[in-house]
Write a structure and sequence with these properties.
With 224 residues, this protein is mostly beta strands. It has 2 domains: 40 residues, no CATH class; 178 residues, no CATH class. The strands form 3 sheets. Strands 3, 4, 6, 9, 12, 13 and 15 form a 7-stranded antiparallel beta sheet that branches. Strands 8-10-5-14-7-11 form a 6-stranded antiparallel beta sheet, with no helix packed on it.
Length: 224
């Protein structure tokens, strides 16, 4: 059985700058290691909205209506690298919340299915992830629930363009980068439950784009 260390040993050069690969491994997660896994076909992008066509968000936060819902099958592990939420339109609202929540259990709802795309365009889209954006009728995860990312604004203005009350444009893009956090979350099943990642771009009357980039690898690779 392979684990992530043995896989990286196989993917990375045996030596660089007179250092063995395991010396590099000791330096923690690096862009080189992530890129090696992307090159091998384990990097995926999940999009809600594309080009000039945003999704219509579900409005203010409601637990059952995430704007993106990603379910990780039991034989896979998903490591989110980047989450990007960009608003095209936000109505007048006292509270705008961007939430990325991970956990085990609950259930996906219905609505729009989204196919994760391999970050190497020559490789198959075979992540096994089940994705919806947006979603309705979902049930929140019930175990090991945590916010990966949570940002909010408390502005009651219409943000279709530059704000009428300030000279600069209102903030409309919110980005989570695992490397900036200094820790990489691993989403995988346990206790007979699937892991899920739910994302909300909660506001009044939003249209928005959501992009998630991450690594989807065999679950056994993440075992010690």
């Amino acid at each position: 059985m392979e684990n992530l260390i043995t896989v990286l040993k196989r993917l990375l050069p045996s030596r660089r700058d007179d250092r063995p690969w395991y010396g590099m491994l000791g330096e923690g997660v690096t862009e080189e290691k992530i890129q090696a896994l992307v090159n091998a076909g384990f990097g995926y992008v999940i999009q809600g909205g594309s080009i000039t066509t945003p999704i219509t968000g579900n409005g203010a936060y409601v637990a059952t209506t995430p704007d993106m819902d990603i379910l990780v099958p039991t034989d896979k592990a998903f490591i989110p690298l980047v989450i990007n939420v960009g608003y095209e339109l936000v109505g007048t609202s006292l509270l705008l919340e961007v939430i990325a929540l991970a956990g085990l259990g609950g259930s996906q709802g219905a609505a729009t299915a989204v196919t994760p795309t391999n970050m190497d365009t020559s490789k198959a889209n075979s992540s096994g992830l089940i994705c919806r954006s947006p979603s309705t009728g979902a049930v929140l995860p019930t175990q090991n629930v945590t916010d990966l990312f949570h940002e909010q604004e408390t502005l009651a203005i219409t943000k279709t363009a530059g704000s009428a009350t300030v000279a600069a444009f209102d903030r409309n893009k919110y980005v989570y980068r695992a490397k900036d956090e200094g820790v990489y979350h691993i989403l995988k099943g346990a206790n007979g439950l699937n892991a899920r990642l739910n994302i909300w771009g909660a506001a009044q009357g939003p249209t928005l784009f959501i992009t998630v980039k991450g690594l989807c690898v065999p679950e056994e690779w993440t075992r010690e």
